[in-house]
Amino acid sequence: MKAAVFLERDGVLNHVRVAGRSQMPPLRLEEFHLRDDVREPLEQLKAAGYLVLVTTNQPNVARGLLPRRELDLMHDLLRRALPIDGVMLCPHEESDRCNCRKPGAGLFTEASFRWHLDMERSFVISDKWQDAAAAFVAGCTSVLIKSPWNGSGHHDLLVNDLGEACDKVLQFNHPVHHVHVPLSQLALA
Description:
With about 190 residues, the protein is of the alpha/beta class. The protein has six helices and eight strands.
């Protein structure tokens, strides 16, 4: 089974505006700007054998503020610019109470089945508590980048930036070196 690194989109891979105590994700392609420092760490994860998957809650689709076509253009740009294997999206509002909206683990569960993932060897990198909570439910290790949106809930690791987060992932659990031997094949002494 494969291991993956799930990355929150807004605030980790692309810039967001901050209004009061909230992040304001882009609503038009012209507002969608990738961070300058994200490509190299993602390339290191890919070179180590991880699947790189992006997860994002986009409730502005359900609210009618973000046309789906505009969101698809942003994700096409993301796929062309960065070494990612897929984008997992929840377009619902919190009041919809869907399972795919983080902190629910639906996006991670769907990815687990789609890509045949070993969730115990997979990681979630984000700057938001919702992703850490979803990682816990999904059985992944959470790596939070320090931000005002970390919250006070469970997280496994706390780091300063995406580069440090990727370094921790590579130090902690390298998928290429992981060898699974079924218990039936172990010789008991």
